[in-house]
Design goal:
Distance between the termini: 56 Å
Number of domains: 3
Strand order of the largest sheet: 2-4-5-7-6
Radius of gyration: 35 Å
CATH architecture of the largest domain: 2-Layer Sandwich
CATH superfamily of the largest domain: Histidine kinase-like ATPase, C-terminal domain
Largest sheet: 5 strands, mixed
Structural class: alpha+beta
CATH topology of the largest domain: Heat Shock Protein 90
Number of helices: 13
CATH class of the largest domain: Alpha Beta
Order of helices and strands: HHHHHHHEHHEEHEEHHEEH
Shape: elongated
Number of strands: 7
Helix content: 55-70%
Length: 338
């Protein structure tokens, strides 16, 4: 109401000036015989009429604005149906403009989404095509373990395999719900399978692994849970010094089981910690390490949120990093989804 009064100050000023002039004319003109009490009565009637007119205009002119404010405070679904019919030509033009702008934005968004889906499909198709020769290369490597050069070839093969897998996960991230299967998984087995696939990375830097704590079963999608562990383990190896130890602790906070990966690496600068889950952010440590893409922790965190897990990173520069993946407690819906 205050904003409306301020926007109509010219009306109020005009009314005050007009009423003042009428009173001056009546007071000065001797031909008009009117008692002061009658003049006050006339002024009161005029003032009441102006107030009534002002309230009527306020109710009519702000009806559209109040409807828009209500829509903004709630879900913006079917907002067209919630708008009142325009009461003035100005409101009609405004509503037409909003609907036209919204329609154009919707078309742009649909075109963008279409292009994004095409790009994602292309990346997924490309990744699958690349996996075929990679599988063939892996078979050749396994068949020629006695050849010294195969050890170095396998290291490069694993790097390519991980990059392809990362790109494929980026493409699938938007439709993760369509590729999500819940099942009881042993935390120790999840870790063991991933360590086996990444063994070459650990051998390359002569990094040892210690697994501590009690095992527990978790209800989770194996593929996506292993994807998260893969990102955490590759980061731990990447930023650890040769001949160091990576400790994997299995445990539970109350009823919430977790897997914690502790390395003795370079750690993360305190100023970088708030941004480690941002897409493309590599931080000071990542800039010194040319292999950093800024996607690993971003993808791990996004996948964690989508599958109901929690990812937490604790680190001090020069003292290593602790990455904890906590699994959600199964609920009734999870049991039905199994």
């Amino acid at each position: 109401m205050i904003a409306y009064v301020q926007s109509r100050w010219s009306w109020i000023a005009f009314f005050i000036i007009q009423l003042t002039l009428i009173n001056v004319v009546i007071y000065v003109d001797s031909g008009i015989q009117l008692q002061k009490s009658a003049l006050f009565y006339l002024d009161g009637i005029i003032l009441l009429l102006f107030i009534a007119f002002f309230v009527w205009r306020y109710t009519r002119e702000t009806k559209l604005i109040r409807s828009i404010e209500t829509i903004i405070d709630t879900e913006m679904t079917d907002w067209h149906d919630q708008l009142p019919l325009p009461s003035t030509k100005e409101e009609e033009v405004l509503i037409e403009f909003i609907e036209r702008a919204e329609g154009e934005q919707r078309v742009k968004f649909m075109n963008y989404e279409k292009q994004h889906l095409l790009k994602a499909d292309y990346i997924a198709s490309w990744a699958h095509e690349v996996k075929a020769p990679l599988t063939s290369m892996k078979l050749t490597i396994d068949a020629n373990r006695s050849v010294e050069a195969m050890r170095f070839i396998e290291q490069d093969w694993l790097r390519i395999h991980l990059l392809v897998d990362e790109q494929l996960s980026v493409a699938r991230l938007g439709s993760l719900e369509a590729d999500y299967v819940l099942a009881e998984q042993s935390m120790r087995q999840l870790v063991g399978r991933e360590l086996k696939d990444l063994a070459t990375l650990f051998f390359q830097k002569n990094i040892g692994v210690e697994i501590e704590g009690d095992d527990a079963s978790v209800l989770v999608d194996e593929k996506w849970a292993r994807f998260i562990l893969r990102q955490l383990l590759t980061n731990a190896v990447k930023y650890s010094e040769s001949d160091s130890i990576i400790t994997i602790r299995l445990g539970a906070h109350g009823t919430i089981p977790f897997i914690r990966i502790e390395d003795e690496g370079r750690g993360i600068a305190e100023k970088d910690l708030p941004r480690i889950f941002e897409k493309g952010f590599t931080g000071m440590t990542g800039r010194k390490h040319n292999e950093a893409t800024g996607l690993g922790l971003y993808l791990a965190n996004e996948v964690s949120k989508k599958i109901g897990c929690t990812l937490r990173i604790e680190s001090s520069e020069g003292e290593g990093t602790h990455a904890t993946l906590a699994f959600s407690k199964p609920n009734a819906f999870d049991q039905l989804a199994k």
